[in-house]
């Protein structure tokens, strides 16, 4: 198949973009057709599979033995290539056969089947076009004869059956008339040798003769009879060839017919590119002008500030100089003292008295100044320190003119942080933006600000995940309308919980009393029925009676690490106890719950209230704090005031519990400000459970984890 002239060579050179492999960005070499119909070099498929194999093995080795680092080699070994090329290649014996391959063309995972690379067709058509392109690109480079004795002659033919190129003489020698080889197919000189018959990659001895309309790929009759395509609709190869060729020809004719429209749109794009370039340069010039004006203002202010400092400095130095000269005059034989010594030499009494009176006053004044020395001026320039913090902040937020786009405002009430951060903001409907950019960054303990992370958002809320524990984060948002950007909103500072969030639900089996407690279907909310059974039996009550606590615990225990969970206590609740308890203590409570017999029992401190003073420092297997009547009651402590006004706090909207199992410590937090209200030691020698108890009317709602679904739920509400 030889070239059709210079026009075809020019056309071939113009299609280079279609001949580039999406993986290696070079001309295709032995391209394979993936199930998604994109092509990729044979070597690129192998390299990508090797990378996947290496990353998988690295993860496995890291999980099994972190003390033995994996050795990495710069190039794949031969045995690895052979292993991946073999049918049914597996990553390891414990995993199923690999079926997934990331296509670099469409960036989707495609199924290669059990045969892997061997199940892919080679794109001979594309390979031929690439070869023609290479020949057009190296028009002056000749293909030499493969059979000539040195020096070889330029080839004139290539035999597709022999996969070799020949000069005229060698072709006659190796393809003599009257032999089978004389019937071989030959073409012009080429280095691209393709088989005359396309064979099935699934059944290597069968030729392709059908086309699967469902899978959009050629198949053989065995594939249809009992293979993967047995239930698929197939057509003959000639019919598929005719149909696809007609469709492709119509599409090409349509595009050729629209050539003038395409050229017009190309011209329009060229004009738009030039206009963009001009507008970009103009915008740069305007920006430079604005910054130069700022520089001029700064230079002017700098000059005036420096002049004021210099003037004050000169005035103070002059005062110091005058004062120093006065004091130097007090030295012997200098100034005032020297003059007085000369006056003392006057023998005429009248003349002496006339001069000495004023001189005496001056010396008295100098003597008094010696007794109370005061510098004539201050050395400090504290009043001349330039405060640029506000201006620096404004310059840091310097942005493009918003063209009337209002600044979005973060809604602090609807924004919260738990396992993730949920940020909500509002924006006036009249200036609805096309999109928003939410920025966030970590604030170090020394108030050092790190660089901003950005995420583009289409709505007015976003969930941010993968935040560090016990860290302050700053959030801000700005609006975009086209290419115009609004200034940033006011920053919102949120503090993340001190440990990863611990997920659990209320346990409906262990100790749950359904006569006194009402648990919802989701098992994340429990309510107390306010002693309904007690009211029914009230006619029998003649004496004082202490009702018992109804306990309910979490359905997951803790045996190590740091954990945090949060919940809300309903404002109408009379008495609620919350905290942690060990498995053995829970068994004791649930088997013999406390009642009216033991009013002295104090769960807050973990021991009998009568011995409270002697047991402050002991580590108990549980800790519960009391909440009720919109108050948070801090247990007694030997290290702080135990007056009621110091132990009773307003009940937070949401309460958090932090358990450090390894250190045996539990803390209770105000979730609104992530502030620790109370902390104490707890015995964690057994499995610890979140524990709750209710008396009278009350309700507890576990804090819901923040996820993308949570966001959708909030928007629907």
TrEMBL record:
The keyword Ribosomal protein does not apply. GO terms for biological process: acrosome reaction; spindle organization. It catalyses: S-ubiquitinyl-[E2 ubiquitin-conjugating enzyme]-L-cysteine + [acceptor protein]-L-lysine = [E2 ubiquitin-conjugating enzyme]-L-cysteine + N(6)-ubiquitinyl-[acceptor protein]-L-lysine. Coiled coil: none annotated. Residues 407-499 form the Fibronectin type-III domain. InterPro entries: B30.2/SPRY (IPR001870), B30.2/SPRY_sf (IPR043136), Butyrophylin_SPRY (IPR003879), ConA-like_dom_sf (IPR013320), COS_domain (IPR017903), E3_ligase_FN3/SPRY (IPR050617), FN3_dom (IPR003961), FN3_sf (IPR036116). Residues 344-401 form the COS domain. Its EC number is 2.3.2.27. Residues 484-711 form the B30.2/SPRY domain. Residues 21-72 form the RING-type domain. Residues 195-237 form the B box-type domain. Belongs to the TRIM/RBCC family. Interacts with CENPH. E3 ubiquitin-protein ligase which mediates ubiquitination and subsequent proteasomal degradation of target proteins. Involved in chromosome segregation and cell cycle regulation. May play a role in the acrosome reaction and fertilization. This is RING-type E3 ubiquitin transferase. The lineage of its organism: Eukaryota, Metazoa, Chordata, Craniata, Vertebrata.
């Amino acid at each position: 198949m030889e070239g059709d002239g210079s026009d075809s060579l020019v056309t071939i050179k113009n299609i280079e973009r279609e001949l580039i492999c999406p993986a290696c960005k070079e001309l295709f070499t032995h391209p394979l057709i993936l199930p998604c119909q994109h092509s990729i070099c044979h070597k690129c498929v192998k390299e990508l599979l090797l990378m996947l194999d290496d990353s998988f093995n690295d993860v496995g080795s890291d999980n099994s033995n972190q003390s033995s680092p994996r050795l990495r080699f710069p190039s794949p070994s031969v045995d690895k290539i052979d292993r991946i090329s073999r049918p049914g290649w597996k990553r390891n014996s414990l995993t199923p056969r690999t079926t997934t391959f990331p296509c670099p063309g469409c960036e989707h995972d495609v199924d290669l089947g059990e045969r892997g690379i061997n199940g892919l067709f080679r794109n001979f058509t594309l390979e031929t076009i690439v070869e023609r392109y290479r020949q057009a690109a190296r028009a002056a480079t000749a293909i030499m004869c493969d059979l000539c004795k040195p020096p070889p002659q330029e080839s004139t033919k290539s035999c597709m059956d022999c996969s070799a190129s020949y000069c005229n003489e060698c072709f006659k020698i190796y393809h003599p008339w009257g032999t089978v080889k004389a019937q071989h197919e030959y073409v012009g000189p080429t280095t691209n040798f393709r088989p005359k018959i396309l064979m099935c990659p699934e059944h290597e001895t069968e030729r392709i003769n059908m086309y699967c309309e469902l899978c959009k790929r050629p198949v053989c009759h065995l594939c249809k009879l009992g293979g993967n395509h047995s239930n698929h609709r197939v057509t003959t190869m000639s019919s598929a060839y005719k149909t696809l060729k007609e469709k492709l020809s119509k599409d090409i004719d349509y595009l050729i017919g629209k050539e003038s429209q395409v050229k017009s749109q190309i011209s329009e794009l060229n004009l738009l590119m030039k206009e963009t370039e001009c507008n970009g340069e103009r915008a740069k010039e305007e920006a430079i002008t604005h910054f130069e004006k700022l520089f001029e203002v700064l230079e002017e202010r700098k000059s005036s500030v420096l002049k004021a400092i210099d003037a004050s400095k000169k005035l103070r130095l002059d005062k110091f100089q005058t004062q120093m000269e006065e004091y130097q005059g007090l030295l012997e034989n200098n100034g005032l003292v020297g003059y007085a010594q000369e006056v003392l030499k006057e023998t005429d009494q009248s003349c002496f008295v006339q001069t000495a009176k004023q001189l005496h006053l001056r010396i008295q004044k100098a003597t008094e100044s010696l007794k109370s020395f005061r510098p004539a001026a201050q050395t400090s320039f504290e009043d001349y320190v330039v405060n640029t913090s506000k201006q620096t902040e404004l310059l840091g937020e310097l942005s493009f003119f918003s063209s009337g786009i209002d600044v979005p405002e973060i809604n602090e009430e609807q924004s919260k942080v738990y396992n993730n951060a949920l940020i909500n903001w509002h924006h006036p409907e009249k200036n609805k933006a096309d999109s928003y950019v939410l920025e966030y960054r970590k604030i170090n303990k020394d108030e050092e600000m790190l660089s901003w992370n950005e995420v583009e958002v289409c709505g007015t809320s976003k969930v941010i995940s993968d935040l560090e524990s016990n860290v302050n984060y700053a959030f801000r948002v700005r609006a975009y309308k086209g290419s115009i950007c609004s200034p940033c909103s006011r920053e919102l500072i949120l503090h993340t919980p001190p440990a990863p969030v611990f997920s659990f639900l209320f346990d409906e089996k262990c100790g749950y009393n359904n006569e006194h407690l009402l648990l919802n279907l989701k098992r994340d909310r429990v309510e107390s029925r306010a002693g309904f059974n007690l009211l029914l039996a009230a006619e029998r009550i003649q004496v004082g009676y202490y009702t018992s606590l109804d306990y309910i615990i979490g359905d997951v225990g803790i045996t190590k690490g740091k954990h945090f969970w949060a919940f809300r206590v309903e404002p109408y609740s009379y008495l609620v106890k919350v905290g942690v308890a060990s498995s053995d203590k829970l068994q004791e409570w649930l088997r013999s719950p406390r009642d009216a017999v033991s009013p002295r029992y104090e769960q807050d401190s973990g021991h009998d209230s009568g011995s409270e003073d002697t047991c402050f420092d002991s580590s108990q297997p549980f800790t519960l704090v009391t909440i009720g009547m919109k108050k948070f009651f801090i247990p007694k402590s030997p290290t702080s005031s135990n007056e009621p006004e110091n132990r009773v706090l307003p009940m937070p909207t949401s309460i958090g519990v932090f358990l450090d199992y390894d250190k045996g410590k539990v803390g209770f937090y105000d979730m609104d400000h992530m502030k620790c209200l109370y902390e104490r030691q707890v015995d964690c020698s057994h499995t610890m459970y979140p524990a709750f108890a209710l008396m009278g009317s009350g309700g507890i709602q576990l804090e819901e984890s923040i996820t993308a679904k949570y966001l959708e739920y909030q928007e629907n509400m």
